[in-house]
Amino acid sequence: MQPRTLTYNALELRPAKNSIAICQGDQVVTITLDQLHQFTSDLCILAASMREDMRNPLEDE
To answer: Which is deepest, 19, 20, 25, 37, by most CB within 10 Å?
Structure first.
């Protein structure tokens, strides 16, 4: 399967050699696959923490 460009609203994700380019207009940020893996891991941990913080306090009773 060939990598393809993905578009989310105004952001484009473009495959590059051992990295991904995140583009918005003429701005481009390139992150390596290792950085992407760490970022997504951290994002999942943050999201889980936020869900825990938003729990209904009455659920514990």
So the answer is: 20
